Amino acid sequence: MGILIEAEKLSKTFRVAQRRGGHLGGLLSVVAPEVRLVAAVRDLTLQVQAGEMIGLVGPNGAGKSTTIKMLTGILTPSGGHIRVAGLDPQRRRRDLAGRIGVVFGQRTQLWWDLPLIDSLQLLRHLYRVPADRHAANLARLSAMLDLEPFLRTPVRQLSLGQRMRGDLAAALLHDPQLLYLDEPTIGLDVVAKARIREFLLTLNAEQGVTVLLTTHDMDDVETLCPRLVIIDHGRKLYDGTTAAIRERFGTERTLVAVLDPAELARLPRDGVGHVVLPDLPAGVRLVSAEGPRLLLEFARDAIAGHEMVSWLGSRYRLHDVTFQEPQTEDVIRRIYEGGLLAPAAHHGG
Amino acid sequence: MIVPHTPAGSTALRFYVEVARTAYRRQLIYRWANIAGLCTNAFFAAIGSYVVVALFRVRASAGGYHLAETVQYIWLLQALTMPVLPFGWMDLMLTIRSGDVVSDLSKPCDFYWYWAGREIGRSLYFLAFRALPTYVLGMVLFGIGLPSQPDRWLLFVASAILAATLGIAYRFLYNIAAFWVVEARAVATMAHQIALFCTGMIIPVAFFPSWLRAITGWLPFNALMNLPAEFFLGKVPGSQVAFELSRQAVWVLALTLIARRVAAIAARRVVVQGG
Amino acid sequence: MNRALFSDLALYRRLIVLQMRAQLQYRANLLIDIATYLAVTGLEFVALLILFGSFPRLGDWTVGQVALLYGVSSFGFGLAEMIGAGIDGFNQTILRGEFDRLLVRPVGAFIQVVGSDFRLRRLGRITQGIAAIAVSLHLLPGIHWTIAQVLVLSAGIASTAAIFLSVLLLGATICFWTVETTELTNILTYGGCYMLSYPLSIYGRPLQRFFLFVVPLAFGGYAPVCYVLGRPLALGLPGQIALAAPAVAALFALVSAAFWRLGVRHYQSTGS
Fold first, then answer.
1. Nearest to residue C261, comparing CAs of C193, C172, C180, C184?
2. Does A224 share its domain with A263?
3. Which of B185, C4, C82, C84 could bridge to C122 as Cys pair (CB 3.0-4.6 Å)?
4. Residue A71 covered by a domain
């Protein structure tokens, strides 16, 4: 097992032509366009080992799709160096294409008017897969993804979930080493999402297929990706485990305590009428009080969860107590909005 | 498109005029598409001109036309194509296919006059920015001229206005057929080609065998393109002028009334069935 | 390199066969479509014949001679229409952002594009071309047909198809830069077919030079027909240039292919 993807100081700058206004502007735009430089990806360094499952996360326009396009050979980088499976994606596009599978969430790889099975058969010839291997893969994928009920249906008549499963099968028929998924669960219902996630986990665990997944769905990340790469404004902000990021930035936990209604009258209030809890331990603050429902935020390292509960319980009669863990989604949003992370300097990985 | 409330009387007229003006202004945006279209018109007119130049090398005149008039005819028909637009217009059909027409039909304005107003606006645009430049190109490239007699201009303008109005009714009708006919592609294609032939766009009507001319003379296609061109070139004898113009006007009236009737039926269907 | 080419061609064959099978499934519809297209293009040919009712000659070409030229042009163009439908529809591929998925496959992009649409119903125009040629043969009883002449004419038809396909490819390549000019390509294809259905000699010199030396469509129809009829060519060129038609078509195709590769590289450097 070695390094499958090696990208060093990858960058991509687009030249965007600005339309000039006015009557003559239209003509000028063709002859001497005003050009604006947009750096979509800057100095991105990434190393992926074979067998990993990675989530690529970032706001829209962050440069995720651009990065994937450079890795697959669709787009030529402006700077930097890439090797995927030991090949230069730009120079050996066709060779590399035989070793990777790509699923674009919004656009299908299948032929619209043909039944699914025809598309899958056609792909055998496209990827030059030997007949017996193809048949075995097809049987296996068909079982794992439950394709049998709609194998003979034209692709345009499939539901989104069915089409996505078809696309996954299509991407895997030729035993690729590496699978790119661009927003694979977008638009799917909860059940469909769960199935796809289960399939991907099995794929990675049993076949060792390396998976690089772009997504906005944090549940995808939580369920599937031990490793998370955050990209914003073309730069890599974070590259590490999902757990670590939650711990590092999800330092605050929330306790939801429902008091016995009789206790409410006893609670002191401030001048404006808001509930005040006297003598709160250091690092704990009352976020909100809706009737008997109190929301307390406390720093993870200020006080342990069970200590917080006993402190409360010793002073007030409690009806119910729950903890809210920081959502990765919230954490990431805070990172984008608060600029909590400086662009990662050149890391080992 | 925002439609104000039920217009009536003079406010109605102002409304439809506004519809026309908006359509005109919207068309101004598609500058490059228009230039591309202009090139197409000019190219086909030029090819046709070369062909007739070669044809007239052995005969001085045919069908009552000599070379200069035939070249004028060809450029004129290409020029008139967009303002009259008997073919290639699918806007209404597209709103029917997409279902948008249902909301249009429920609006408190006259459906036919709404579309007619819109098309009048576009016709005026195409008159200024396509028809005129096309004919001017013909004048520059092939030295065709303009009628000198004012009465010819008068008759031409009258006939052209009738032709444009007829074009609006005609295309409205074959578009609204989409309401009832889902897929009749073969028939539609064939009908289109026959219609194209009868307008004189494939070969000038003057060169049809006389029995064919007699038949096509009674079809609305003749009134769409060939007749205005004949007036332009002064090919209609004085005694026939009133007859030809009346026949054209009758077509305009007939198709407009039929179109309005069909629109009303469609509207009622929408109200009753909800599309 | 060769292996890639062979496998691409094998794939193309498979794509075409698949589409033909799918279209032949709805045989009635296909026949209606072919018949309609035959009728539509046939009406244009009939119009030509009507024209000759009023005029004995076009330039100094007789009706039979023009009909032969017309048929050859139609046949070649119809072939290009049938094979190149995928190229013709390329602006839609770009507009819908579907080109990316072609690039992640281990196959050349061009083969995928040209193999994406094969329109059997264009046989309508091909039939019209054949019919026009048949009519012309009937109107030209004086020609003694030799094998050489048949070969030259057939090569001409194939060359016409190849050149029209290359023009379609040029039009598709422009879509990498802008999708707003598709109508101009139509002038060159449909306009070109219309124009080259008539003898090149009736047009002005600049047009003659253009369709001989820039977009060499005249090599495909006009030159072979002149050769077969023993007629002098425009611009005083010798009849033997008709023999060069396949070479000229191949050269033009290479130019077109080079431009396509440039377009793909441009796409890869600037994104959609």
1. C172
2. no
3. C82
4. yes
Domain at A43, CATH number: 3.40.50.300
Give chain B positions within 8 Å (CB) of C26: none
Number of domains composing chain A? 2
Residue A192: which pLDDT band, with cuts at 50, 70 and 90? confident
User: Average pLDDT, whole number, for chain A?
Assistant: 84
> What's the confidence (pLDDT) of residue A31?
65
Q: Give the number of domains in chain B.
A: 1
Query: Between B43, B57, B194, which is nearest C187 by CB?
Result: B43
CA B10 to chain centre: 28
- Residue-number span of the structural domain to which C246 is assigned: 2-270
Per-residue model confidence as pLDDT tens digits over B21-56? 999 999 998 888 899 999 999 999 999 999 999 999
- The answer to whether residues A238 and A55 touch, using CB atoms and an 8 Å cutoff, is no
What residue type is C106 in one-letter code?
P
CB contact under 8 A, C187 and B190: no
**pLDDT reading at A349 higher than 50:** no
- Encode pLDDT of C30-44 as tens digits: 999 999 999 999 999
Q: Do both A181 and A315 map to the same domain?
A: no
- Residue A345 banded pLDDT, cuts 50, 70, 90: very low
Same domain, A224 and A300: no
The number of domains in chain C is 1
Question: Per-residue pLDDT for B190 more than 50?
Answer: yes
Tell me whether residue B29 is in a domain.
yes
Interchain pair B53, C184: CB under 8 A: no
CA of C179: which chain B residue's CA is closest? B33
Helix (H) or strand (E) holding A348: none
- Note which residues in 31-90 of chain A have CB less than 8 A from chain C: 66, 69, 72-76, 90
Q: What CA–CA distances, in Å, run from A290 to A323, B129, C193?
A: 17, 68, 79
Residue pLDDT, tens place only, C62-120: 999 999 999 999 999 999 999 999 999 898 899 888 899 899 999 989 999 999 889 89
In a domain, B4, yes or no: no
DSSP string, A257-326: EEE-HHHHHHS-B-TTS-B--TTPPTTEEEEEEETTEEEEEEETTTS-HHHHHHHHHHHS-EEEEEEEPP
pLDDT in tens, B109-139: 888 999 999 999 999 999 999 999 999 999 9
* Residue A81, domain extent: 3-99+176-247
Residues A85 and A212 in one domain: yes
